[in-house]
Amino acid sequence: MPTSSFVRFASVALITAPLLAACGNSQRSTQAAPPPPQVTVGRPETRTIVDQDEYVGRFVAIDAVEVRARISGYLAQVHFQDGQMVKTGDLLFTIDRRPFEIALEQARANLGQAKANLAFTESDLARGQQLLRDRTIAEQIYDQRVQAKKVAEASVAANEAIVRSAELDFNEFSELRAPVSGRIGDRRVSPGNLVTGGASGNTTLLATIVSMDPIRFEFTFDEAAYLRYQRTAKASGQDIAAMQVRVKLLDETDFAHEGRMDFVDNAISQTTGTIRGRAVFPNPDSLFTPGMFGRIQIPASAPYQALLVPDTAILTEQNRKYVLVTDAENTVRQKYVTLGQLSGSLRVIKDGLAADDRVIVNGLMRARPGLKVTPQDASSGPTSAKSAPGPTAKTD
């Protein structure tokens, strides 16, 4: 090839090479620019909220009675099935009544003898009064008859007391009846065994009875919570010991059982810094059993207006919580928020969010702060959870 031709070819190549490179880069940049990602946005829901606190506690019976005999004797009969419900006055046990019947008859006989002796001393004293007026007997003899009458009266009173005691043993104490209504446990003694009674500490335990309806729920809470409840109750014009509360059992998801507070202790424990509270719940079906664990929910604030967003829209940055929102230019912005309690699937936002903010509720993995997005209104956004149950308190 001639030298001049080669030079011309090289010059053309040098001129066209940058043009071709520029075209290639332009085509690649056009292909590499994806459209803004699509996200789903929704506005926070406004709802009236009452903060709730949650505590673990235990059900206890209002009445718990140990059935023990007041007299000693052989157990004759048992009149109940283990674990059955009993009412006040139901017959539970019978102790062999024959020895007490004999003791009652003897006491009545002694009383009759004492009354006969009293009648004789009264007649003798009446005769002595006339004789004393006639100066037929000495005053000493008359005083002896007065003293004999007083002794006879005391003997009658003593024997009447013995008769009443024997009647109690025979008519009441030999038959043990339920002192309260509730569920009785199993029998601790079988018929034929000797039962020890009386006022000593080694009496025989026959059975136990616990009341079932209503039933109490006991728990403890700290001093800060106590002050909060006091102020909340005062603001609503009621006492802390009359607040409405709810409870759920360990296998339940909702606080479906309603009751009321009926007692708060009069001092805070210096050891634990907590105070004891107690609530009462109706228990007509005997669902709650003394000793059973549960969780109680207590109102911790006055009603207030709050913003709620889906709990899945809450993100975490170290120890701070935030949500992603879109502005007027569809640019993603980060907003740090202060969280409240969970209400169904929605989370209460106490601070950091406005009612007109558009919160990204779906497509969070495609959104980054400062990135342009294509927002779409949620067809069933935060307002779809309006039918969710009331606030569920976080554990204290």
Q: What is the class of the largest domain in the CATH system?
A: Mainly Beta
CATH topology of the largest domain: Elongation Factor Tu (Ef-tu), domain 3
Q: What is the first-to-last residue Cα distance?
A: 92 Å
H/E element sequence: HEEEEEEEHHEEEEEHEEEEEEEEEEE
| Strand percent estimate | 25-35%
Mean pLDDT: 83
CATH superfamily placement of the largest domain: Efflux pump adaptor protein, beta barrel domain
Please identify the oligomeric state.
Answer: single chain
Task: Characterize the biggest β-sheet.
Answer: 9 strands, mixed
Shape: elongated
Q: What percent of the residues sit in helical stretches (DSSP H or I)?
A: 25-40%
Indicate the CATH architecture of the largest domain. Beta Barrel
> Which class do the helix and strand fractions yield?
alpha+beta
DSSP helical segment count: 4
Domain module tally: 4
Radius of gyration: 45 Å
Write structural notes for this entry:
- By secondary structure, the protein is of the alpha+beta class.
- The protein has four domains: 38-49 and 304-385, conserved putative lor/sdh protein from methanococcus maripaludis s2 fold (Beta Barrel), CATH 2.40.420.20; 53-62 and 213-299, Beta Barrel (Elongation Factor Tu (Ef-tu), domain 3); 67-96 and 174-210, OB fold (Dihydrolipoamide Acetyltransferase, E2P) (Beta Barrel); 98-172, Helix Hairpins (Orthogonal Bundle), CATH 1.10.287.470.
- It is built from four helices and 23 strands.
- Strands 1, 2, 17, 18, 19, 20, 21, 22 and 23 form a nine-stranded mixed β-sheet that branches.
- Strand 20 and strand 21 form a beta hairpin.
- Helix 2 (98-133) packs antiparallel against helix 3 (139-173).
- The longest helix has 36 residues, at 98-133.
- It is elongated and about 145 Å long.
- The termini are far apart.
